[in-house]
């Protein structure tokens, strides 16, 4: 089978770090701005963290600086993890147990997995067994002697409701903390048939457990620290404890040098790390406390350093446990809703406005951050225009990217969701105020041209302009078409009812493309009578889109409706027969996709993700003619690698939009495969050949010819397949 296009290639990495890659495709190129760490394990120079939908590996060799090394998308929701040798075992929420190879921290990959009945909260590994606290599934015992094929061999559930959230195993004893049933001790000498030894129910939401000799230390969400004596295993007895007064929410617990390190997640006054002296277990005493800004869950210790899993990773020095000091952190930066790229600079917008140097896309560098939030942005010359929600329109001078400066503002009547620039005007989808048209000829003093109420009760969420027509999306009310030939006096022409909630919208060549859960294509050649052309089902719930010549880049965030978050590239050269070119799953929720040549930039809710595709995505038609990066001449490059086995890449340049055919022949002149036969935009393009003929058969070792025909240009080159 001939594959002219590959799955999107992407590699995840922090804005401050080196590249790290997935094992196989898809593969992240780079990223920045993360949030949501639940647990952490420390070994050597690395911190292994649960992250939203996956595993994040950080370099901690140079504290206080912490650098991202890699991210592996797994799905699920990482709750806890342990490391044994080169393998990470993760309790991955709804996805059960995940086994990841981290022999090369820069290239982690999934080895195997095993579903559990409910929600995997905690995993403990002993020899060839993994013990998983699986909330309603109780204790699940999984054989991991073959990590690629983990297999559940035993379980223990309490009759009625369960709530297992933590487990610790010593020899043949399993200690389980259960929100519903308190604490129970199991005999697991026969892992296929675990049996109850004893239980202790006088607890309020036992959330963590740590045995030491004949004592068991329990983190209880409302009681704080509870100490049980198990000198008689069948008769546990509470001997002591340390109460926080019932105001905190104890999460996790570990024992270290006669101290209990306990994390607190709920109280805004006391959340963070509590250090409790248990040298005398019958008289625990508070030694010190370290407060965090976020809910604190997982905890790990290495020497005198404690690593806390909050929304960030925080490192605390407890050399003096009475006065713990911060020793480093890996900070997040809230949410990212929008991205715009111009030259070698990426501009992101969410809870703040960030400017990144992407001249090396594998290692983005933050140039500046500006305290302004919003939903949409556009960059024109040295100005950034921001649809800033309730703050209306904001105009930022970015002539010095390292020092952005607010120079103008306009208070829209409604929530500014999206904007579209045209000459000296900005068209703003302004929520319940419909369409607002702003004159920005003088950026320091923008002025209202017209506020126009649109028929219907829904908020205006998206807008684009084509010729003298404005297309405004109205959520459940679909699309409204306006005549804006006189911007001071817009006129409604016609509505169009969409099948879903209409948000993003773009228009070109008489067609409008609407993100309404899927991709709706509408012909507006006769604006008063819009006609459906196609409804294309994307690989997710389509929220926003951008148009690049004949390719739609669609952002498809998962809003909990049963499918993953993805970005999708769609060929619309024939709108009635749109074709999916490539797609990939993203770690979080993509709200916007911006493309430049072979690179895609995705605002993925909690991160900026940078992707590469093996073909060129053109600039919009209005940008293409003036782009200095476009090639001057038609060229056909030498395939690479060459010689090759089994696949190779062929690159060609087009100075203008052209009908292209790319064909492979043998030395007898017989056609072996046709790799391309369609219109391509101006730019650099790469096409992949997998070494198969048109009928799907592997071709033999030998010399082959490949010929490019683009308009009047024809060139042929040789390539060598060696097996």
List the keywords.
Immunoglobulin-like; Methylamine Dehydrogenase, Chain H; four-stranded antiparallel sheet; single chain; mainly beta; 723 residues
Which secondary structure elements does this structure contain, and how are they paired or packed?
Blueprint: E1 9-10, E2 30-32, E3 40-43, E4 46-51, E5 54-62, E6 65-73, E7 80-84, E8 87-91, E9 97-101, E10 109-114, E11 122-126, E12 129-133, E13 139-143, E14 151-156, E15 164-170, E16 173-178, E17 182-187, E18 195-200, E19 206-212, E20 215-220, E21 224-229, E22 237-242, E23 250-256, E24 259-264, E25 272-277, E26 285-291, E27 299-302, E28 305-309, E29 313-317, E30 325-330, E31 336-342, E32 345-350, E33 353-357, E34 365-370, E35 376-380, E36 383-387, E37 393-397, E38 405-410, E39 418-422, E40 425-429, E41 435-439, E42 447-452, E43 462-466, E44 469-473, E45 479-483, E46 491-496, E47 505-508, E48 511-515, E49 519-523, E50 531-536, E51 544-548, E52 551-556, E53 566-571, E54 579-585, E55 592-603, E56 608-617, H1 621-624, E57 635-636, E58 648-654, E59 658-665, E60 671-680, E61 683-689, E62 702-710, E63 713-721
Antiparallel strand pairs: 1-56, 2-56, 3-4, 4-5, 5-6, 7-8, 8-9, 9-10, 11-12, 12-13, 13-14, 15-16, 16-17, 17-18, 19-20, 20-21, 21-22, 23-24, 24-25, 25-26, 27-28, 28-29, 29-30, 31-32, 32-33, 33-34, 35-36, 36-37, 37-38, 39-40, 40-41, 41-42, 43-44, 44-45, 45-46, 47-48, 48-49, 49-50, 51-52, 52-53, ...
């Amino acid at each position: 089978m001939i594959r002219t296009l590959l799955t999107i290639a992407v590699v995840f990495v922090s804005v401050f770090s080196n590249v790290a890659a997935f094992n196989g495709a898809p593969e992240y190129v780079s990223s920045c701005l993360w949030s949501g760490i639940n647990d952490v394990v420390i070994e050597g120079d690395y911190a292994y963290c649960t992250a939203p939908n996956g595993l994040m590996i950080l370099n901690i060799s140079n504290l206080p600086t912490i650098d991202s090394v890699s991210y592996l998308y797994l799905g699920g929701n990482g709750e806890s993890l342990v490391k044994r040798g080169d393998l990470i075992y993760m309790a991955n929420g709804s996805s059960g147990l995940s086994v990841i190879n981290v022999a090369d921290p820069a290239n982690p990959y999934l080895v195997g997995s095993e579903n559990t009945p409910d929600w995997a909260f905690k995993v403990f590994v002993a020899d060839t067994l993994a013990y998983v606290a699986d909330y309603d599934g109780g204790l699940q015992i999984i054989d991991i002697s073959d990590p690629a094929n983990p297999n559940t061999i035993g379980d223990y559930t309490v009759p009625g409701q369960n709530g297992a959230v933590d487990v610790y195993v010593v020899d043949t004893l399993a200690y389980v903390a259960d929100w519903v049933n308190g604490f129970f001790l199991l005999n697991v000498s026969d892992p296929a048939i675990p049996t109850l030894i004893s239980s202790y129910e006088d607890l309020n939401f036992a959330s963590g457990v740590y045995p030491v000799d004949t004592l068991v230390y329990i983190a209880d969400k409302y009681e704080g620290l509870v100490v049980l004596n198990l000198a008689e295993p069948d008769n546990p007895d509470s001997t002591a404890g340390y109460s926080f007064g019932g105001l905190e929410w104890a999460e996790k617990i570990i024992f270290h040098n006669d101290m209990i390190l306990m994390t607190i997640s709920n109280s805004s006054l006391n959340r963070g790390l509590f250090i409790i002296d248990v040298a005398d277990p019958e008289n625990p005493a508070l030694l010190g406390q370290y407060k965090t800004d976020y809910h604190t869950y997982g905890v790990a210790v290495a020497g005198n350093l404690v690593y806390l899993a909050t929304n960030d990773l925080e490192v605390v020095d407890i050399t003096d446990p009475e006065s713990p000091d911060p020793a480093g952190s890996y900070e997040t930066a809230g949410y990212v809703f929008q991205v715009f790229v111009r030259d070698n600079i990426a501009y992101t917008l969410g809870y703040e406005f960030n400017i990144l140097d992407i001249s090396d896309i594998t290692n983005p560098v933050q140039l500046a951050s500006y305290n302004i939030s919003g939903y949409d942005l556009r960059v024109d010359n040295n100005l950034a225009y921001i649809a800033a929600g309730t703050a209306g329109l904001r105009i930022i001078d970015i002539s010095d990217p390292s020092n952005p400066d607010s120079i103008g503002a306009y208070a829209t009547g409604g929530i500014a969701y999206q904007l579209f620039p045209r000459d000296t005007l900005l068209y703003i989808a302004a929520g319940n105020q419909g369409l607002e048209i702003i004159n920005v000829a003088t950026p320091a003093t923008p002025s209202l041209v017209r506020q126009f109420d649109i028929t219907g009760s829904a908020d205006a969420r998206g807008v684009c302009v084509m010729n003298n027509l404005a297309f405004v999306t109205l959520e459940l009310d679909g699309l409204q078409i306006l005549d804006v030939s006189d911007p001071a006096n817009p006129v409604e022409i016609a509505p169009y009812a969409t099948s879903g909630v209409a948000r993003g919208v773009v228009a070109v060549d008489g067609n409008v493309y609407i993100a309404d859960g899927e991709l709706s294509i509408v012909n507006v050649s006769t604006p008063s009578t819009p006609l459906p052309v196609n409804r294309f089902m994307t690989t997710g719930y389509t929220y926003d889109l951008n148009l690049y010549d004949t390719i739609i880049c669609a952002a498809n965030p998962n809003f909990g409706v049963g499918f993953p978050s993805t970005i999708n590239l769609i060929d619309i050269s024939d709108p009635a027969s749109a074709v999916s070119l490539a797609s990939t799953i993203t770690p979080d929720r993509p709200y916007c996709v911006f493309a430049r040549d072979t690179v895609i930039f995705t605002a993925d809710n909690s991160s900026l993700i940078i992707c590469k595709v093996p073909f060129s995505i053109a600039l919009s038609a209005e940008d293409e003619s003036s782009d200095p990066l476009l090639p001057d001449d038609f060229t056909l490059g030498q395939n690479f690698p060459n010689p090759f086995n089994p696949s190779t890449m062929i690159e060609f340049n087009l100075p203008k939009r052209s009908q292209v055919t790319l064909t492979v022949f043998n030395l007898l002149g017989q056609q072996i495969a046709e790799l391309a036969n369609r219109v391509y935009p101006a730019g650099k393009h790469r096409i992949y050949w997998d070494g198969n003929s048109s009928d799907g058969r592997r071709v033999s070792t030998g010399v082959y010819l490949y010929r490019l025909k683009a308009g009047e240009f024809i060139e042929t080159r040789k390539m060598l397949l060696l097996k």
